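chain below, 76 aa
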Amino acid sequence: MTKFFTKPQASEYLTQTLGLPVAVKTLSKFITTGGGPEFQKFNTRVVYTQTALDEWAKSRLSRPYKHSSEIEATNE
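prediction:
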């Protein structure tokens, strides 16, 4: 069976394991506004899979740059 992460565990995973700081409060906001990682409900609790967290984090990253002027040139 797949391992699931609660919001605090998901925040810790993103921050500590991936090095991409995301607060529990931010994950909570995304649940109501959209734009966050795909989630599921287990009774009343929101849970995330590691795959969903990894895919969401990857989707939020820009492509690699060699110089800051590249960012302005691509308008990202």
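The beta strands are 4-5, 40-42, 45-49. The chain has one domain: 4-63.
thats it, cya
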